[in-house]
Amino acid sequence: MVLLAAAVCSKTGKAIISRQFVEMTRSRIEGLLASFPKLMGSGKQHTFVETESVRYVYQPLEKLYMLLITTKASNILEDLETLRLFARVIPEYCKNVEESEIIEQAFQLIFAFDEIVALGYRENVNLAQIRTFTEMDSHDERVFEAVRKTQEKDALDKSRHKAKELDKLKQQQGKMGIKSSTGFGGGGMGNIGKDIVINPSTTTTSEKPKTTAFTAPIRPSGTGKALKIGGGKRDVDSFVDQLKSEGEQVASPTSQQKQSVATKAAIPASNQESVHLQLEEKIVLAAGREGGLQNLEVHGLLTLRISSDKYGRIKVGVRNKDEKGIQLQTHPNVDKKLFQSSSIISLKNPEKPFPINTDVGVLKWRFQTQDDAFMPLSINCWPNEAGSKCDVNIEYELERTDMELNDVVISIPTPSGSGSPVVNDCEGEYKYDSRKNVLEWKLPVVDASNKTGSMEFSVAGRANDFFPINVSFVSKKPYCDIEVDFVKDVDDDSDVRYSSEVVFYADKYEIL
Predict the structure, then answer these.
(1) pLDDT digit string (tens) for 337-368?
(2) Does the reported pTM lie above 0.85?
(3) 194 in a domain, yes or no?
(4) Domain containing 143: what range?
(5) CB 307 within 8 Å of CB 274
(6) 334 Cβ contact list (under 8 Å, min separation 6)
């Protein structure tokens, strides 16, 4: 399916909103929309109509039309399915399907359209996922907000408790100061009040008071923190456990922090030049426990940062040796025709410089497949139930021997309450986290020299208890064969010194 544009138009062909997914001029899209009503036969109810070059797939929305413009080679069944999803999106944002309401919600509708189609191809999303993506709902944010409210409540309760203790302390101090003045004379009452410390928990009058100087409760020093709540970590753990008991999947902040640290540690610090380029790729993979790749997606981004004014007007050469069939997309301000013909990234207006001291994404790419041959690392897990215990054999294999993966961590869940697993054989290191019930198999480097490895352990449980298996790693070589070839000045075509860094990491890598 190649979708050229999606639009909501009137019955006369007037465009209310329109989103083009391929490069198309405004006059071209307006002409296509204006010719649409003329092609519809009077009194006939169809779902599509064709011309010599394009196909119109439409659905009435009261006084308006939801219209898709596709190529004639597009699959009509997929077109109709996509049209239904577009038509369901409109009522999600507009209470009344009217022109004024659609114009008011135009930006939200455009954002939703972009979640359905990317680069002219339908994304595998449903209405609930579109709503989640556009609202940017986050489990981590909800956990943070809940913990913050709990901490504020604890701080308020603690301050009230401290205030009550201070009031009680002042009352007891006053009473004791009056009694002491009857035995030692009225003149010494003020000094006695300063030299005596009252223990609020003391209930007997026979105990002698301490002679150290009285000091009020010490306030925290001015470090910018109001009160340090000792139970903050317990609050996080209890709230996360509550979310998990309700069926929510909450990522552990500590694991995310470890992954972030590992990612930074895997990339050596480099002396950045005035022109610095960062190539970042992340992979999202889901594979079956019995074998077979369910989905593999790689998203890449080339970011340019210039820290000196004299290098603002440059061009970047990119060498693309990838043969997997990736989809490339340049920034709207980049000369697309020049990139398509010469693989050179340069601004449309050569007189205009790149932004200074700003990370600018100039090129992004995407690759998606369900072919097992493209998996960088495969995981095989064989649980063998033997009575109440289970013997588990797990092995990895580096499918792409030209790659080097660093800080590889294979996390295998274990049954709750089963105790520590007994590891009989392991190539590399392992660590058991009893709080999370996870056995972590750690390998500093996986490359052609150790492209296979295995681990064997025993623990009480069933075969299904050891899934899903999560894998994390980083690499200094990109998955897609894309690299920066040169950086040159636009005016005199002279070479410009630049620095670059590459990172490829597993964003979500699961064996389900």
Answers:
(1) 899 899 999 998 888 899 888 899 999 999 99
(2) no
(3) no
(4) 138-178+231-250
(5) yes
(6) 345, 346, 347, 348, 362, 363
